[in-house]
Design a protein that fits this description.
- The protein has 21 helices and no strands.
- The protein is an all-alpha fold.
- The longest helix has about 100 residues.
- The chain is elongated, with a radius of gyration of 50 Å.
- The chain starts with a helix and ends with a helix.
Length: about 500
Amino acid sequence: MNLKTLIASLLITFALYGCRPQTDNELLPDIESMCRNNPEAALDSLNAVDRNSLKQADRHYLDFLMVKLSDKAYVRHTSDSMILRVLDYESSHKGNGRYPEALYYAGRVYSDIGDYPRALSYFKKAQDAIGEEPGASELKANISSQYGRLLAQLNLYNEAIPHIRAALETGKAANDTINIINDLQLLAGIYLSDGDYDAARQLFGEALTLAGEKYPRHAAKSRMYIASIKNITHQTDSALLFARGIVEEAHPAARDYAMSVAANIYLAAGLKDCAYMYARQLTMRPDSISKEMGYDLLLDPDMDALVATDSLRRYIYEYHRLLKSRFNKNRAELAITQQSIYNYDLHVREKEQTEQANRRLTAAVMWLIMLAAVMSCVILLFRNRNKTRIIQLQQALSNISILKAELERRNAITPDTRGETGGETSAEAGLRSRQPQNPIAKDLRERLQQELLQLYSRTPGNRIPLPKICVKGCSRNCCNSTPERRAT
């Protein structure tokens, strides 16, 4: 095997190694594939995985799946420690393709914690990380949906509706029935919170039609809200029809609210025993909101006949304690929100200062570039002027060479005629003195003298007097004034 073949084989091996999957554990991708249809079972399978037996990359993958499956299974996030580890790893391993999704689940974590500004920030970062990436329509729809949900929780209903409608359109384009149902219910919930009961009932009806018998929990949720709307609008008989079976069919995370809706409908219909039963069950739930809904029902004036007098004082005390706890919690959440807003404003100011400094630096660089360009033009101009002067001098030298050659040629054509003794007779001297001078040589001499005078006059700083220039054959008296020059 020669050297080229060996190098090619090594390159192919490295390429195949780089293209291999990022995890060697086939169980984790299988668990992730289960999250869409049965997230609870997927989460149970994930909890059964031995973390210590995994490689480092698989451990980070396990953390990512733990956050994702917990969110899919409606397990409320209470800490950001795990998602921060996931973000730290995925930000430096973007080739895994999980970084945008990790940003999305960071928004979900901070949404559950109550830090809404930070949650909105992570949702925007996830949108920017996706960009125009193909095949990410579901994640884009989820981001828009959750963004709208947060705005709705902040009572910004008009701002939330466009985001949810965008998510709804994305789901319809992808023919994603589950996400379409979720977005319809979310949009209907916003209209319900805003007091638009007709629009809310219509949207919940569309979600109920899409859910049908294929998605019984989604159908139960739509029926629950339709029953609540009909109870609010004093359509008690119709509300009783829709409320039938919603407690048993509702999702476990929504079952307490379903009991509250059913209890209010039964109380309005005069079925106080059923209402009292659900109210008592709510007071025994571990969640404070469920307890609050239960005590609110038990302390209703229509329930006086069923509530014992000795229990009434305890109900009032517990209800007061829950309301006080909720008030303190709201104050803490408000402090977190204000702190987040302050941090965001501080970040915006720092960003503006940085951008201003960058603009100043850019302007300084541009001025330096312009100054350098001007200096280059000036240098090129002087160099061109010097080159022009050199060309003129070269042309003058060329003319001198032409003149010299012409004179030598003329002298060769008309040589001096002398006797054998080297002298000339008086007749020959008279004849030569009467011969006319060569007009071509005379014209060349005059042109050369004019060009040299012009060059001399255009050259600055010349203070040296011009010597008399005389060439062989000159008939002027300058040649007769000095014996040495005449000898030349």
